[in-house]
């Protein structure tokens, strides 16, 4: 699928809330089917989506006018990243990517990888050259994306009492 000319990236609005929640529910089910424990405990939920939108964190990748993917892109300190068992690559300002979810219609077609590439452009435009992200140890698809895009494993961080693999990528200025 060649979608790279027919896509747009935009901030999510309240009107998108139900569509985002549907995509997240699809991703939650895919994680379950993949045997991953990620997102199997009531998080993320509709309140998470509302909070993302209210805080201007929610972004959508649309392809041919359809919402293909969602992510929270946060230009703020992530408290869970303040303590890491390991070492970050830098202490510079960073952008955090959370809650990456692709709709079933577009899953497996490189959409998440493309979304990450677009997030790099957003970061550069904001003069931020570090991207930090974490994922479950058993989220194989996300681990493959991070490896493919040159993210460096930095150690473990903890969310709601469980360890997560933490990654950072320094992007070219």
TrEMBL record:
<dbReference type="GO" id="GO:0016746">
    <property type="term" value="F:acyltransferase activity"/>
</dbReference>
<keyword id="KW-0012">Acyltransferase</keyword>
<dbReference type="Pfam" id="PF00583">
    <property type="entry name" value="Acetyltransf_1"/>
</dbReference>
<feature type="domain" description="N-acetyltransferase">
    <location>
        <begin position="7"/>
        <end position="173"/>
    </location>
</feature>
<keyword id="KW-0808">Transferase</keyword>
<protein>
    <submittedName>
        <fullName>GNAT family N-acetyltransferase</fullName>
        <ecNumber>2.3.-.-</ecNumber>
    </submittedName>
</protein>
<dbReference type="InterPro" id="IPR016181">
    <property type="entry name" value="Acyl_CoA_acyltransferase"/>
</dbReference>
<dbReference type="InterPro" id="IPR000182">
    <property type="entry name" value="GNAT_dom"/>
</dbReference>
């Amino acid at each position: 699928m060649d979608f790279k000319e027919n896509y747009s990236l935009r901030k999510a609005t309240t009107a998108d809330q139900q569509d985002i929640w549907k995509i997240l529910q699809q991703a939650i089910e895919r994680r379950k089917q993949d045997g991953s424990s990620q997102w199997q405990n009531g998080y993320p939920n509709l309140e998470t989506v509302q909070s993302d939108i209210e805080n201007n964190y929610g972004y959508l990748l649309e392809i041919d006018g359809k919402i293909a993917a969602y992510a929270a892109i946060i230009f703020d300190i992530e408290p869970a990243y303040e303590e890491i068992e390991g070492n970050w690559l830098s202490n510079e300002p960073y952008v955090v990517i959370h809650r990456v979810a692709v709709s079933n219609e577009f899953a497996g077609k490189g959409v998440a990888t493309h979304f990450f590439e677009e997030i790099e452009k957003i970061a550069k435009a904001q003069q931020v050259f570090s991207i930090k992200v974490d994922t479950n140890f058993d989220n194989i698809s996300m681990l493959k994306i991070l490896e493919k895009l040159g993210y460096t494993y930095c150690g473990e961080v903890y969310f709601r009492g469980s360890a997560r693999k933490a990654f950072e990528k320094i992007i070219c200025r």
